[in-house]
C-alpha cells in the first residue's frame, strides 16, 4: 500500500515536471493564406503542401533542433485574399498565437502590407509566391521563395519576342493589384527598351471585380498588337481570353506566374489551350526530389501540385532549416525569433524542389524561371528555363 | 475609328442590358413598396447559381443537347429564383411590414438578407469558382470589322423584350393598375378590396424571376461564377435605377443602358485607369441636374 502511494506520488511529480517541458516541445509556425476570397485555390494548395510536410516531420518524431526533437504545430489563418485582412491576420498570428515564424501571404497584394507588420514586430516571414520587389525591400525580417518581377518581366519579353516573333505588344492589368500593376510596368519598360519606344501599343487596366473587359479589349484590338501580356489572376484570365476571341482577336497571349493554378483550365477550358506563361516550376517532366514531391502530392490529394504548393513546401523547409540553424529553442519568444532570423542568414544555398536558391542581402532568392505552355489536353508543359 | 465606335456601342448595349435587367427588379419593388431591396444583387447571383445547377443537371444527368437544355433552363431558373425572392419577402420583409416597422429597418434587413445569401453560398458550395457549361455554341460574326456574337444579340434583345413586357404589365393590366395604386396609397387600397399581400408577392415574383433570367444570361456571357459576383453589379444597377428615376420602369431601363454606355465609352476614349472616377462623376452631375432621376417624379419622402 505504502509502495503504491509512493509510486503514485512519483508519477504525479514527474508528470508535473514534464508538463512545461512538453509544452515547450512544440514549434509554432503561422500560415497567413487566402482560403476564401478571390483566389481560394492558392490557400488550399499552400495548406495541402504544409500538411504533407508536417505529417512527414512529426511522423519521424519531430524536428531536431540542438539535439532535441520538437513537434511542429502549423496554424492556418485565412486572409480572404484582402490586403487589410492579411495585416490583421499577421498581427493575430504574431501576438495571439505566438508563432516563431510566418509563412505567407501568397500574393504581393497581401504580402507587401503584411511584410511591414512582420518586420515591425521582429518575426521572420517567408512568402512563398510574392514576386513584387517591395515585399522584402529594406525589410531584414522578410524573405521569399519566389523570383522577382524585375526578373520575370524580361523572361516574358524575351520569350514573346523569340517564340512569337512579336514586334508590338499590348498590356491588360488589374489596377488595384500591386503585383499585376508592378509587373505590367516592368514589362512595358523592358519591351520598349528592347523593341523601341511606342511598341507597347496599348496599356489598359481594369478593376479586381470586373467581369466585362470588352471596352479595354476593343481598344487593344484596334491597335493590332502581336500579342497581349496579361499579368492577372487566373480567374480574370479565364474571362479575358474568351472575350478577346469573341471580339475577333486572333493573336497570342503571354501570362505570368499568377496563371499557374489548375483552376485556370477548369474555368477557361479550350480557349486557354496553347497559351504560354512564365512561372516557378513545371510539373510535367520533373525529375528527382521534385518528381517525388509531385507523385506524393498527387497520390495524397488527387491533383497535380501547382507552383504555390511547391513554393510553400520550399518556403516552409527554408524556415525549418533556419530554426535548426538557430541551435536551440529557449521558449523565450523574442530571443527565439531573433535566433531564427540569424538562422536564415546562415543559409548559404538551399536545394528546393523549385530549383536551387541563394538569398541575397534583401532576402530574395537568386533562382531560375521556367516558361510553360498549356497543351491541348490542358496540362502545363515545360518549354524553357531561364536563369539569371 | 468608326468600327471601334460601333463595336463599343454593341459592347455598351450588352453590358447595359445586364444593368437594365437588374435595375428593373429594384425599381419594381421600390415602385410598389418604396423599399430598396438591397438583396436584389444577390438574388441575381443566386439566379446564376440556380442556372448553373439546372444546366449541369440537364447536360450531364439527363444528357440533353445544349439547346434543349437551354429551353428547360430558362423557365426553371426563373421559377426557382422567384421562389427565393418570394421567400425573402415572406420571412424577412413581411413580418416587419406587419409590425409597422419604419422603412429604414426593412432596408437594413434587405442588406442583411443579401449578405446571408452570399455567405450561405460560400459555406455550402465553397469558395472555389464554378465554370458555367456552354449551352449554345457561341458564333462570332464579323461585319466590316465589327464583331459580335449570337449571345450578345440574344442578351440585348432579351433586355428589350423584358422591358416591353414589364411596361405592358404595369401600364395595361389590372394587376399593374393595382401595383400602381399600392404605391400611391398603401392604406386606402386594401379598403377597396385589392389584396395587398398578393400584389406584393406578385411584384417579387416578377422582379426576382427576371433577376434569375439576368443571372442565366450573365453566366452564359461571363461563365465564371463566384459567391460575390452579384454584390458590385447589384450596387451599380441600383445606382442606374436611381439615375434613371427609381420607381419607374422606363427609368430603370434608361438608367441601366446609360450606366453601361458611360462605363464603356469612358474606357474607349480615356485611359481605362479613370473609368470609375469619370463614369460616377458623370452620374453625379446628372443627379445634381435632376435629383429625381431622368424620368422620375418628385416625391415628398425618399430614402
Question: Overview of this structure, please?
Answer:
The complex is a heterodimer of chains A (388) and B (303). In chain A, helix 2 crosses helix 11 (307-326), helix 5 crosses helix 6 (178-195) and helix 11 (307-326) crosses helix 12. By secondary structure, chain A is of the alpha/beta class. Chain A has two domains: 29-147 and 287-367, Rossmann fold (3-Layer(aba) Sandwich); 149-279, 3-Layer(aba) Sandwich (Rossmann fold), CATH 3.40.50.2300. In chain A, strand 7, helix 6 (178-195) and strand 8 (200-206) form a beta-alpha-beta unit. Chain A has twelve helices and 16 strands. In chain A, the strands form three sheets. In chain A, strands 8-7-9-10-11-15-16 form a seven-stranded mixed β-sheet, sandwiched between helices. In chain A, strands 2-3-1-4-5-6 form a six-stranded mixed β-sheet, sandwiched between helices. In chain A, strands 12-13-14 form a three-stranded antiparallel β-sheet, with helices on one face. The mean pLDDT of chain A is 89. Chain A is 46% helix and 21% strand. The relative contact order of chain A is 0.13. With 303 residues, chain B is mainly α. Chain B has one domain: ABC transporter involved in vitamin B12 uptake, BtuC (Orthogonal Bundle), CATH 1.10.3470. Chain B has helices spanning 2-33, 40-61, 66-98, 103-125, 150-172, 174-184, 196-221, 229-244, 249-269, 275-289; strands at 130-131, 140-143, 146-149, 224-225. Chain B has a two-stranded antiparallel ribbon with strand order 1-4. A two-stranded antiparallel sheet of chain B has the order 2-3. In chain B, helix 1 packs across helix 8 (229-244), helix 2 runs antiparallel to helix 3 (66-98) and helix 3 packs across helix 4. Chain B is globular and about 60 Å long. Classes of the chains: A alpha/beta (388), B mainly alpha (303).
Amino acid at each position: 500500500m505504502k509502495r503504491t502511494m509512493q509510486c503514485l506520488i512519483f508519477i504525479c511529480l514527474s508528470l508535473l515536471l514534464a508538463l512545461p517541458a512538453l509544452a515547450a516541445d512544440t514549434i509554432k509556425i503561422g500560415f497567413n493564406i487566402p482560403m476564401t476570397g478571390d483566389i481560394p485555390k492558392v490557400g488550399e494548395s499552400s495548406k495541402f503542401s504544409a500538411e504533407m510536410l508536417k505529417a512527414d516531420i512529426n511522423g519521424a518524431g519531430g524536428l531536431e533542433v540542438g539535439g532535441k526533437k520538437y513537434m511542429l504545430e502549423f496554424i492556418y489563418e485565412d486572409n480572404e485574399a484582402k490586403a487589410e485582412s492579411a495585416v490583421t491576420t499577421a498581427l493575430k498570428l504574431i501576438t495571439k498565437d505566438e508563432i516563431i515564424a510566418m509563412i505567407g501571404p501568397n500574393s504581393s497584394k497581401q504580402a507587401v502590407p503584411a511584410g511591414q507588420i512582420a518586420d515591425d514586430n521582429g518575426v521572420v516571414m517567408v512568402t512563398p509566391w510574392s514576386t513584387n520587389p517591395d515585399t522584402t525591400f529594406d525589410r531584414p525580417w522578410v524573405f521569399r521563395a519566389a523570383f522577382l518581377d524585375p526578373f520575370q518581366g524580361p523572361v516574358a519579353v524575351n520569350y514573346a519576342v523569340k517564340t512569337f516573333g512579336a514586334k508590338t505588344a499590348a498590356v491588360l492589368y488589374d489596377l488595384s493589384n500591386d503585383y499585376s500593376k508592378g509587373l505590367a510596368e516592368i514589362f512595358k519598360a523592358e519591351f520598349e527598351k528592347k523593341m523601341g519606344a511606342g511598341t507597347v501599343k496599348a496599356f489598359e487596366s481594369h478593376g479586381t471585380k470586373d467581369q466585362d473587359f470588352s471596352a479595354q479589349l476593343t481598344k487593344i484590338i484596334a491597335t493590332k498588337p502581336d500579342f497581349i501580356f496579361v499579368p492577372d489572376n487566373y480567374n480574370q484570365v479565364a474571362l479575358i481570353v474568351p472575350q478577346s476571341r469573341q471580339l475577333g482577336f486572333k493573336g497570342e497571349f503571354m501570362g505570368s506566374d499568377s496563371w499557374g493554378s489548375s483552376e485556370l483550365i477548369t474555368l477557361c477550358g479550350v480557349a486557354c489551350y496553347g497559351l504560354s506563361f512564365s512561372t516557378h516550376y513545371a510539373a510535367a517532366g520533373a525529375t528527382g526530389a521534385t518528381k517525388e514531391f509531385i507523385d506524393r502530392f498527387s497520390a495524397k490529394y488527387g491533383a497535380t501540385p501547382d507552383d504555390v504548393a511547391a513554393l510553400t513546401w520550399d518556403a516552409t523547409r527554408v524556415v525549418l532549416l533556419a530554426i535548426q540553424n538557430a541551435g536551440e529553442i529557449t521558449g523565450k519568444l523574442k530571443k527565439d525569433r531573433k535566433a531564427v532570423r540569424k538562422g536564415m542568414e546562415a543559409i548559404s544555398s538551399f536545394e528546393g524542389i523549385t530549383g536551387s536558391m541563394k538569398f541575397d542581402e534583401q532576402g530574395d532568392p537568386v533562382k531560375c524561371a521556367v516558361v510553360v505552355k498549356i497543351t491541348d489536353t490542358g496540362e502545363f508543359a515545360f518549354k524553357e528555363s531561364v536563369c539569371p | 475609328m468608326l468600327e471601334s465606335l460601333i463595336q463599343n456601342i454593341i459592347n455598351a448595349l450588352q453590358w447595359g442590358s445586364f444593368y437594365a435587367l437588374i435595375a428593373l427588379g429594384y425599381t419594381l419593388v421600390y415602385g410598389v413598396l418604396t423599399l430598396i431591396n438591397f438583396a436584389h444583387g444577390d438574388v441575381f447571383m443566386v439566379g446564376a447559381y440556380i442556372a448553373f445547377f439546372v444546366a449541369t443537371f440537364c447536360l450531364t444527368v439527363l444528357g440533353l443537347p445544349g439547346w434543349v437544355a437551354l429551353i428547360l433552363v430558362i423557365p426553371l431558373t426563373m421559377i426557382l429564383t422567384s421562389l427565393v425572392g418570394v421567400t425573402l419577402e415572406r420571412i424577412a420583409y413581411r413580418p416587419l411590414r406587419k409590425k409597422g416597422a419604419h422603412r429604414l429597418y426593412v432596408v437594413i434587413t434587405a442588406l442583411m438578407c443579401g449578405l446571408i445569401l452570399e455567405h450561405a453560398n460560400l459555406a455550402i458550395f465553397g469558395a472555389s469558382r464554378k465554370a458555367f457549361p456552354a449551352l449554345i455554341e457561341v458564333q462570332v460574326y464579323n461585319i466590316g470589322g465589327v464583331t459580335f456574337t449570337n449571345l450578345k444579340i440574344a442578351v440585348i434583345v432579351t433586355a428589350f423584350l423584358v422591358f416591353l413586357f414589364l411596361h405592358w404589365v404595369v401600364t395595361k393590366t389590372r394587376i399593374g393598375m393595382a401595383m400602381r395604386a399600392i404605391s400611391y396609397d398603401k392604406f386606402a387600397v386594401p379598403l377597396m378590396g385589392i389584396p395587398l399581400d398578393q400584389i406584393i408577392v406578385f411584384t417579387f415574383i416578377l422582379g426576382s424571376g427576371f433577376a434569375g433570367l439576368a443571372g442565366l444570361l450573365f453566366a452564359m456571357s461571363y461563365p465564371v461564377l463566384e459567391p460575390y459576383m452579384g454584390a458590385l453589379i447589384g450596387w451599380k444597377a441600383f445606382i442606374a435605377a436611381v439615375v434613371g428615376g427609381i420607381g419607374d420602369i422606363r427609368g430603370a431601363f434608361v438608367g441601366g443602358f446609360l450606366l453601361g454606355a458611360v462605363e464603356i465609352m469612358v474606357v474607349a476614349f480615356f485611359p481605362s485607369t479613370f473609368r470609375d472616377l469619370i463614369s460616377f462623376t458623370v452620374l453625379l452631375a446628372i443627379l445634381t441636374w435632376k435629383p429625381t432621376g431622368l424620368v422620375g417624379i418628385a416625391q415628398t419622402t425618399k430614402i
